[in-house]
């Protein structure tokens, strides 16, 4: 068993990495939930930090989402959004993350009467500070909640337009089954015409057909999760041939019972089949680990070599929205690190 103080963990922390699948609301640790509940006098359903953490025992995606949306209720002002984002960036820096592309869910907050400018303002201020103080570059991705209507997604896009220079792309998250990509075809087309890049969660709990539809109907440039692609061998071949990135989240997949055990995870097989798979933490406060914990979990369970782990890190930059020259610089840094260690 590989531990966080093992030589492999230290080596992984030294490996430059990008994190591309991270819900900022999913970084809200129980300690911060309690601190913010206290600050705003919000009653909580749990008596202690430990009791809340013990509740993080999920059956599936929906059982997680119910707690995740409840936890986000303590975020009330700009300072809260800043504190949450700053804490994540400090933790990511300790893991050797040098670039982040993070999701936020504006509808979770606007539905509670919080202005979208408060949400974006706090997150963006922390990202700018993180770049200056920690050297972490960033992109911000606005996610639409797929259990809500397309009309509500359209209204969210409208509300975000005054902040459009701060937002690189749009995504699609929340309950997947029964909410296919087609439901959001028009709002994604409008986002494209406005110059936003597109990503979507697909093939986490939903079928492989949702991955095809995200590509064909929403014109996405990455798939978030995508692990159920292996139910469709022709799709796997297409993903390999086109180098369509998958932002895979191993600890999330075992916590939400997509796989009963990490040994069953397909990321190693997909990597060896030539897919641009990447390693990410999704909602680290809820799933028991940040990005290095995710690398360690698959290294251990799937017996991945250091060469394979380095390739996963290279692919995190290949899949990123960094300028090509910057991407190539980070990949060269990885090559140099591997040669020197
Ligand atoms: O893993 C996820 N899937 C879908 N929606 C989400 N919202 C936060 N995390 C997730
Ligand atoms: Zn996710």
UniProtKB/TrEMBL annotation:
Q: Which residues bind Zn(2+)?
A: 21, 23, 201, 282
Obligatory cofactor(s): Zn(2+)
Q: Name one GO molecular function term.
A: adenine deaminase activity
Q: Which family does it belong to?
A: Belongs to the metallo-dependent hydrolases superfamily. Adenosine and AMP deaminases family. Adenine deaminase type 2 subfamily.
This chain belongs to the protein called Adenine deaminase
Annotated site (Important for catalytic activity): 225
Task: Give the enzyme class.
Answer: hydrolase
Keywords for this protein: Hydrolase, Metal-binding, Nucleotide metabolism, Zinc
Any idea what job this protein has? Catalyzes the hydrolytic deamination of adenine to hypoxanthine. Plays an important role in the purine salvage pathway and in nitrogen catabolism.
Q: Where is the Adenosine deaminase domain?
A: 16-336
Residues holding substrate: 283
Note accompanying the cofactor annotation: Binds 1 zinc ion per subunit.
GO biological process, alphabetically ordered: adenine catabolic process; hypoxanthine salvage; nucleotide metabolic process
List the CDD domains hit by this protein, alphabetically: ADA
Q: What is its EC number?
A: 3.5.4.2
Identify the catalytic residues.
204
Q: Which Gene3D superfamilies match?
A: Metal-dependent hydrolases
Q: Name one GO cellular component term.
A: cytosol
The source organism is: Hydrocarboniphaga daqingensis
Q: Which reaction does it catalyse?
A: adenine + H2O + H(+) = hypoxanthine + NH4(+)
